[in-house]
Amino acid sequence: MTPPPIPDADFIPTTDLSDAHPDAPVLAPVFRDYGGRSPFHGPAVTLRIEDDNPLVRAALEEPGGGRVLVVDNGDSLNCAVLGEMLAGIGARSGWAGVIVNGCVRDVAALAAVDLGIRALAPHPRRSAKRGLGERDVPVTLAGVTVHPGDHLHADEDGTVVRPAGRNF
User: Fold this and answer.
1) pLDDT (tens digit per residue) in 4-45
2) Contact 133, 71 (CB under 8 A)
3) Which of 11, 24, 51, 117 is most deeply buried (CB count within 10 A of its CB)?
4) Which class for 68: exposed (0-12), middle (13-18), buried (19 or more C-beta within 10 A)?
């Protein structure tokens, strides 16, 4: 059995952030928790893709430095763009989490990976491997536009976005 993650002393619970800053953007509660780390937080790196995951892999192979990869797959329920292999790469590379506006697979294995993972749903089909998409662009998911560098706080109560350059 995998021990629970060590609590993050720098994490601010989403309820506290929302109470103190009622204007802070909050992602609509459409994402399910699949990873072995909760809560998680960090600066956003953004991707916009279409049922295609080579850019996801490339990002997760980089040193994560506690960042959160935000993958906008356009609410697609056609295939998974993150699974056990890529999640493991992200955890070993030091990413704090991944939020997927789309699907994941290998759900049982994802729960054992020390990575925060939020997604819309599971799907057994793998994605295409064309390498298409955009990185470091504003993405809109769950009613909120996330910009590269925005700070995301995710826990059991939801996900709050602290816009980059804003102190709270």
Assistant:
1) 444 566 788 999 999 999 999 999 999 999 999 999 999 999
2) no
3) 117
4) buried
Model confidence at 3, in pLDDT bands (50, 70, 90)? very low
C-beta neighbour count of 11 within 10 angstroms: 16
Q: Can you tell me the distance from the alpha carbon of 24 to that of 125, in angstroms, rounded to the nearest whole number?
A: 35
Residue type, 77: L
Alpha helices in 93-166 (DSSP H): 107-110
Q: Which domains does the chain have, with CATH numbers?
A: 26-162 (3.50.30.40)
Each residue of 69-109: pLDDT tens digit? 999 999 999 999 999 999 999 999 999 999 999 999 999 99
Q: Give the mean pLDDT of 155-160.
A: 96
Q: Answer yes or no: are the C-beta atoms of 92 and 45 closer than 8 Å.
A: no
CA distance 109 to 88: 10
